[in-house]
Amino acid sequence: MTLALETTDLKVRLRLAEDWFTVCDLSALLPGRGVAALLPDGRQAAVFADRTGRLYAIDNRDPFTGAAVLSRGLTGTHRGRPFVASPLLKQRFDLASGQCLDDETVRVTAYEVKAA
């Protein structure tokens, strides 16, 4: 038997300046797994959903290496703060704020995100 993925009409949208930009179907997000999305200006966002269904989006570029890999990082929580750890050097980035949890001088862009 083959199981079909659950489909929904909901789209994941990021706020870019004054507009909302659609990046993917909500059904494309699995808890603990990131999705990379190409933005209109050529940058990339890493989009995540947690087990409660809350959505997060941060810049996909690891500021320590310059590689666009944060969407492939491992997710977890530290003191109640959801984070993604870069798959390269393992620095952790707060998914809500973009703040690096291992170096307070480093931050990636965090985007407002919604499903609509």
From TrEMBL:
Keyword Iron-sulfur in annotation: yes
Annotated Rieske domain residues: 21-116
Pfam families: Rieske_2
Coiled coil: none
InterPro entries cross-referenced by the UniProt entry: NirD, Rieske-like_NirD, Rieske_2Fe-2S, Rieske_2Fe-2S_sf
Keywords: 2Fe-2S, Iron, Iron-sulfur, Metal-binding, Nitrate assimilation, Oxidoreductase
Entry-linked SUPFAM superfamilies: ISP domain
Record bears the keyword Electron transport: no
PANTHER family tied to this protein: NITRITE REDUCTASE (NADH) SMALL SUBUNIT, PTHR40562
NCBIfam families in UniProt: nirD_assim_sml
Protein name as it appears in the record: Nitrite reductase small subunit NirD
Source organism: Streptomyces prasinosporus
Gene this chain is encoded by: nirD_1
